[in-house]
Amino acid sequence: MQAGFLSKIENFLLVRSVFDKFDKLGQGVVNLLDLIFIFNELGQHVTEKDVLQLLKETKAEVEEEKEKEKKKKVNTVTATAPKPAVGAPYVATTTQQQPTKPPQQTPEDPKKSNKIEFPLFMKMLDKYHRNLMKRDEESDLIDAFAGMGGAWNKTGAVKKSTLEDICRTFDLSIDINVLYHFYLFYTLHNSFSH
């Protein structure tokens, strides 16, 4: 699937049709191992390890979203509580919230709970693409670093004169001396804080 090649609706329909191919009972659910084949059919080559990690990260994001939504609802209810009418007798009331224990959750083995519903799969697919974009951005930065004299494995250094030449060539208004002093401060500060 190329970005921009299909409309959002066409993308959704394509993903749904591939998902449905593996949904043998027509219940909107596939098993964990089917995800590898679904991703592959969509042109994304993943391993079982990749899928398990992606599932873990996606579930964590879903839980985080639920917690934010829960806090948002509590804040909305508190902010919209009715105020007593002017002139109404004052009645002191207290409401104590009973502390609630979070439900006991046992760490589950993703291989045992292998039912994946379509909405969760869509979130996994979104997370997968966001992860790819992050890797692409980092890859571009490493390419630039290596092109200026650093190493591909993120080691080495870029000469100050190389940065000055690049800034002059592309008419960039970056003061390399300020950048260099910031770098020195940062590296010294970090070496003392460890």
Could you please describe the fold and organization of this structure?
The model is unreliable at 1-5 and 103-112 (pLDDT under 50). The radius of gyration is 26 Å and the shape is extended. It has 194 residues and is mainly alpha-helical. Helices cover 59% and strands 3% of the residues. A two-stranded antiparallel ribbon has the order 1-2.
Précis, in short:
The protein is mainly alpha-helical and 194 residues long. The protein has helices at residues 8-22, 32-41, 48-79, 118-147, 160-169, 176-193, and strands at residues 29-31, 115-117. The protein folds into 2 domains: 1-74 and 109-152, EF-hand (Recoverin, domain 1, Orthogonal Bundle), CATH 1.10.238.10; 159-193, no CATH class.
CATH superfamily of the largest domain: EF-hand
Major sheet: size, sense and barrel closure? 2 strands, antiparallel
Q: How many DSSP-defined strands?
A: 2
Helical content class: 55-70%
- How far do the termini sit from each other? 45 Å
CATH topology of the largest domain: Recoverin, domain 1
Going by helix content, strand content and strand pairing, the class is mainly alpha
Mean pLDDT: 79
Low-confidence stretches: 1-5, 103-112
State the CATH class of the largest domain: Mainly Alpha
Spatial extent as radius of gyration: 26 Å
SSE map:
Elements lengths: L7 H15 L6 E3 H10 L6 H32 L35 E3 H30 L12 H10 L6 H18 L1
Antiparallel strand pairs: 1-2
Helix pairs in contact: 3-4
Protein traits:
194 residues; two-stranded antiparallel sheet; 2 strands; 2 domains; mainly alpha; Recoverin, domain 1
